[in-house]
## 1
Amino acid sequence: MVKKVLVIHTWGIGDMLMFTPALQLLLHEYPQMIVDFLIKQPAAADVVRACSQTGRIYYLEQGVNLFKQIWQLRSNGYDAVIVTSGTNHWKSGWLAFSISAPVTAADYQGIRSPLFSVQIARDEAVHRIDNNLKIAAGVIGHEPTVQFRPKFWLNEIAIRHAQEMLAQNKLNRNQIIIGIHCGCGSGQRYKMWPLENYKAVIRKLSSYKRNIVFLLFSGPQEQTFIRQLKAASPDNCFAVSQVPLPVTAALIQRCQLMLANDSGLGHVANGTGVPVISIFGPTDPVRIAPRGAQCLQIRAATECSPCHPHEPPKCRTGRTACMVSVTPELVIEAVKRNLFMDKEK
């Protein structure tokens, strides 16, 4: 019986959400299990913090402090240590092995590591959710019999704060609320759809339906983008910035639709049950897009896309041609089909 597990996660918000179906599978198989997390990027912890079976959350130390942290983790007596898919299995292997649990599980690419007791060959042709599920299946010892979708666990405080913010801006359920995240994280502007295209979408949809409002979400370094977008239609655009991620997720949950680049907030929308339209270019939607019946990816059929597994692309045109090739008209029609077509038939 697996009662106490440590999950090592060195990636970001979206990658954590792509692990949550595997996490739910483990919790379904072992209902009394407590899960601790060792996390490198602090924001990723907010995805699972409100889960009733989340125990302690640790943040990965560096240097001498890392050895002290390993000693502390060893003393916790874990039954299993699981490394989420996509992590370098050699770097994570010595860490998992040093914690000294009976079961250590991860996926691998290339040569297997002797430091894991459960190793699953990573398949780069399938979605990261599926690779995470294979790792979980290796731990429980059989194929999944129940399917789970990505999940962001919300807490009541975040939900209440979101309701208060909406009320302060006089937003209510009679309005069509569309969330937009035009950014994509620090240092990843090559994944951004041009701001002028987002402006065109806002203007066109605002003229199409009078009761549409937009929540413009931004990260710490994206507030300039939001100011530019808000100028496109100032009366029905509301900026959401410098807000904790759980409150952001609760606000997204109140949207009828989320429009985003390949970003963590697109996965947050999917994890809160909101339909999401994602605009993809250099990265591969087959592997990392929000997944589910209510998820749609829009991308241009450029011959060089996708080109970005791990490093920023060096586009031959001097710009990210695959993003520029996605027209506002394509996105506007996708939004209309998602929100209005069935209701107007």
## 2
Amino acid sequence: MEIVSSGLNNLMSPVDYQRKNIQNFISTFLKQHNGYELIPISYRLTVFDTELLLKKAMAILIQNEEDVAALWDSKRQKFYGLVSSNNLVNIIQYYYINFSLAEAIDDINSIKLSGYIDVLFENYSISTTQLKNSPLESLYKISKQLISKNCSSIVLVDTDPISKTDVLASTLSTYQIIQFISSNITEKDIFKSHTLFELGIGTYQKKISVTMETKVFDVVSLFIENDISVVPVLDSDGTLINAFDRSDMNYILKEGMLEDLSTTVEQAIEYRLEDYQGVHTCNKNDNLLSILNMLRKKQIQRFIAVDEQTRLEGIITLSDILRFLIN
């Protein structure tokens, strides 16, 4: 399907032309659908009161294998924000840098979700209270919000017509939107003509990595300083052998290992669940269609790009893909 006019084609390279063609096509598609269409007929929405302890909230998320939950202010009967395992590393770094070890452990174990929201905003300028939108909003605008806020999920919030109070409808993630695209787009040939690298999908220049011997607290610092959610784990030859992401910090919290963040990556990943999916890899010369096909079949959060010798080449996140699709 050709979206870009033939006049513009004369001024653009083949890659730029195809990139614009894809982006116009997907943007038009997303503008025709809204958030309600992605809410399953049967689903579970996890909601925490702001007075709940952060440690208990994280334990519930881990037990139910969920990454995010909505926060509810019962006093004001209003949506308060979003609790995400991705932001746990910010809390850990804040307390370990500003307080003694004993104080840090005590505060992390006793902080309420309302305090968690305050720490994120005051010290990292992260405002989860803005991570909401109407379920009637177009998927295009919701996608732009996800990208601009640099988040992976938002809460769809409706309004009760009588009481005018918030009604929490569902959470909506970047993965759900990309899966919706890959499952409903029939014109798939537009995704085949160029590689991920040619289209500029992913990060290939600044390749941050760690080893099995790297201390967990050093990984936490890498997450925050570089605004990333995963670091590849390489051996002494530079070969990819694993990956450590922000959600791994949940297991550390659950196992009570916060007392010693000098533990190594190798020790920390032993606490993962038995059904851990492993590291998903691709090649930077794969086309976008192959990635979308994999995402349609399986919930994958990111791909580590490697060469034929399994050496690190880059990282492709879901945000990278969605950012490309909507320009």
## 3
Amino acid sequence: MSRSKLNRLDKIKKMLIAQTGISIKEFSASLNVSEITIRRDLNLLEEQGFIRLVNGVAIYRMNENTPLYPEYNLSSECTVFQDKKERIGKKAASLIELNDVVAIDSGSTTAYLSQNLSYDTHMTVVASSMNVLIDVSKHHNCDIICSGGYLYPNTQMFYCPEGISMIKRTCINKAFISTAGISEKLNVTCIAPHEMDGKRALMESAQTKILLADSSKFGKIFPTAFSRIQDFDIIITDNELSEEWRTYIENANITLYCE
């Protein structure tokens, strides 16, 4: 391996340690080499376990024995930023109107939506997860549609092809979608590939698409991109969202609530 390549690989590593989530195009401009050369370098670093490439963006991995993403557990995640998620869930619940057909995605933030539904408002809920199904089953004024299928214990999410087809056939007024990460480069992402089909089906079927995410999710990148930020009509987050992100969202003509 040439000295110039070794020096370039070292620079790439240092750049990623300082700021994870750098695109091939950005590396090419910073290091003054072609994108093809950068892609070869990144492929090598990925083979070595130093990075993970996601849609042309390099994400730093501490070492090859460290998993890129920790195992997700819904119960644990619900306790992280609990106050923020509670406020987001209450705001989301306030947007539901009489006789709405709403879809509630799986996730720790959407869990606080299903816990704060108004018992005085009749609605139909499309439930994609066990915890949401349990919450809405206590709602005496609610009709329930469950997508069903295999239950993923760590996320409480249901999944099967028939369930995805059923969601696509359902006319949904408002879909409340969760996310693991939001990036200007890769847009809206989730951790597991099986989550993507359900989220895309909800997006496809809904008249109004509403993203629920606490401010810690902004700037994070995860393996599976399921939507563009611009595809959402409303984003509900907490009041610690940075001014930079607020400006970005407003410029995209998305209604933003910071609770």
## 4
Amino acid sequence: TSTTSASFRQAMFSSLDIYTNYEIQVAGINQNGEGARSIALIVRTDEEMPSAPPSNLRVLNQTSTSIEIAWDGIPVERMHGVLLGYRVAYGLLGIPGSNASLVQIDVAEPDTYQQTLTGLRKYSSYWITVTGFTSIGDGPVSEPVNATTDQHVPSVAPFINHATNLSSTSILVQWTAIPTGHVRGVLLGYRVYFKSVHSTAYLSNQTGPSEVRVLLRGLDVYTGYTIQVAAFTAKGEGPRSTDVDVSTEEDGMFKLMFFSKANT
């Protein structure tokens, strides 16, 4: 209740609740008491931004290029208006300003909401937040959650930089490790494929992730071989390198090394 002098025709009410309906009536007062009240006027205070973030933000599922998330809605008493939707922000961990991708979804259910973030980098870590908004603006941002997309196969092939015969039955193969950014998972190792000119099927030799050379033994004498190398993760094998052709030596060949004594 607010009382004013007879010369005033207006009143100010303060400290009201946000986005709340109020019933207002006016009555005259004299020494005999209060007169009849006017017809009630229903007035609602303006909206504000939500005062609470969505809660319980969590990751439900991941693939190599997507992350599915869910959260609990903002309590009605903390919405402070008509909730228009939620904004999900996400970016690559450790890369400032990577939150340029914003996903906006409409309110669909009163309790739990979900969204799948797609088109993500394979085997990459992301931070994710969510906030609710009204026509006035965004409310507080939720606590971030971190999630990593699933592994995939390597995206590039190793480069064979050396393949030479060491004897009539062996060939040494060396290659350059694939860059970390192209592994797209945990590198488990390399597979070296080789086949002779007399065969249509490749044989293989496997190495660990830190090894970048292998000695192929027990090969046919004086025979041409085609060699390929591929890296692999738990999800499978990446592309194979360009073919490299090399032949074993003839049987019985040997190398001579000549030395000359320097003049003193």
